[in-house]
Amino acid sequence: MSETATKSPPNPLLEILLTIALPSVALDQLSKPSSVGPFWALVISLLFPIGFGLWCFYKKMGWNLFSILGFLTILLSGGLGLFKLDAFWFAIKESAIPIMIAIAFPLSHRWKKPMINALLMQPQLINLRALNESLAIGTRKAQFDHALFRASCGMGLGLIGSSVANFFLAMHLLGGKEPGSEAFVRSIGTLTWMGFIVIGVPLLAVMMIVFFILLRSVEKITGLERNDLLNPGQTVRRQVVKRP
């Protein structure tokens, strides 16, 4: 294995899990009175993005984008919990996470590890061997990178829509309830499962639309047929004409 391969960064989805998702779950669970409480829950949760960011800086000589986003997200969530702010600020927190991930999609191209690759450019979906061979011709790689960036912007717009929906859903469920009360906590639980349905399903639809638009762009760039691109095997039925 080459040195470059050894130093390759982790999967972006794994980074989101370690720096945003897992710390968020820890913050919610540990903030309960029966556990360590809001302050120490915030401290423990912040250790995830801080620790991962320091590890990335030590191993790869650079700060990790998702560690920064995770730190800001957990700091915002924990701060709201400490001050027991009302439904409006809780709704702001709920909408902040998808906005930060939305920004991360196009911004990840600057770090040369597009998040869109972890979602769509997988061997289970795409014949990567045929794709890479075709992209080695002429200026196709640059065109492909531009198409990937447009797909990332599409995912970002979908997440911004999710953020807006998150805000209004939180206001609908939590508005008028006293922060920290039993009704407030119960509504937070309702918000969690309703969010998966009301927000998750449309977001999945956006991802599918982005995938098929990207697939159509890749067909035009490479000259490969859709069936060849979606075939994870070794063969390509049509000869790809080499264009300058």
Structural overview:
- By secondary structure, the chain is mainly α.
- The protein has two domains: 1-83, no CATH class; 86-244, no CATH class.
- Helix content is 74%, strand content 0%.
- The protein is built from ten helices and no strands.
- The chain has helices at 3-6, 12-30, 38-60, 65-83, 87-107, 115-120, 128-135, 140-174, 182-222, 226-229.
- The model is unreliable at 1-9 (pLDDT under 50).
Short overview:
The chain has 244 residues and is mostly helical. The chain is built from 10 helices and no strands.
Features:
single chain, 244 residues, mainly alpha, 10 helices, disordered N terminus, transmembrane, transmembrane helix, membrane, MFS transporter
The run of helices and strands is: HHHHHHHHHH
Q: Report the strand count.
A: 0
Strand-residue proportion: under 5%
- Shape from CA axes? elongated
- Please give the share of residues in helix: over 70%
Q: Helix count?
A: 10
Number of domains: 2
Can you tell me the residue ranges where pLDDT is under 50 for at least 5 consecutive residues?
A: 1-9
- Main sheet? none
Rg computed from alpha carbons, rounded to a whole number of angstroms: 21 Å
